[in-house]
Amino acid sequence: MGGVRTRQGLERLVFFSDAVVAIAITLLVLPLAEGVPEAVARHASSVEVISENLPAIFVFLLSFAVIAQFWRAHHQLFERIDDYRRPLVLWNLLWLLTIVLLPFVTEMAGSFGGDDRFAPVFYIAVVLGSSVCLSVLTLIARANPDIAAGPGAITGRLVAEAVSTTVLLAIALVVTVVVPGARYYSLLLLLLLPAVSTVRRRTAPRS
């Protein structure tokens, strides 16, 4: 990272990140696919394959949406970056670690029942970790205008969205730990993001 940095190096970083995300989002469906031959072997109906796996299907869809949203935010950020530094690469690798973990925690979430308290806490903690990494990446790009695509490329709105998501996920984690019945429903706090953005725009000083 301390040597020559080229545009090709940045493109390889982005392509590698996209490939890891694509593999992770594909792995989400494998546990559901593996359940089909098992259902056939015990002569279960096709409807039972769905009805017996509703919790797993719910968590699959949740994780798909989470990874898709994080990829969108990552893509949006790197569209505004023209160069890179060592901290950016390291935090991007940490972000990819959280993405790779999501299929694992998704399988845990779908396999353990409602009495298990650790699975939802672990799941939301991993999602929070991913959001923290994206927030740090955004702040690094904001603090280093020389790596941005141009003046003002890393806007305050971009930073606010990343940090707001992290704060809401931190609150969701606390709620899940403190309130046993909250489980994954605490992630509904993310629905407050549009309201947070609206308040921020109204209270921001006008130029």
TrEMBL record:
GO CC terms: membrane
Reaction it catalyzes: K(+)(in) = K(+)(out)
Subcellular location, record wording: Membrane
Transmembrane regions listed in the UniProt entry: 12-33, 53-71, 92-112, 118-137, 158-178, 184-200
Membrane-related topology note: Multi-pass membrane protein
Coiled coil: none
Keyword Lyase belongs to the record: no
Gene Ontology molecular function terms on file: potassium channel activity; proton channel activity
Domain of life assignment: Bacteria
Coarse class of the protein's main subcellular location: membrane
Keywords: Ion channel, Ion transport, Membrane, Potassium, Potassium channel, Potassium transport, Transmembrane, Transmembrane helix, Transport
UniProt entry tagged with the keyword Membrane: yes
Family affiliation: Belongs to the TMEM175 family.
Stored PANTHER family: ENDOSOMAL/LYSOSOMAL POTASSIUM CHANNEL TMEM175, ENDOSOMAL_LYSOSOMAL PROTON CHANNEL TMEM175
Protein name in the entry: DUF1211 domain-containing protein
Species in which this protein is naturally found: Amycolatopsis suaedae
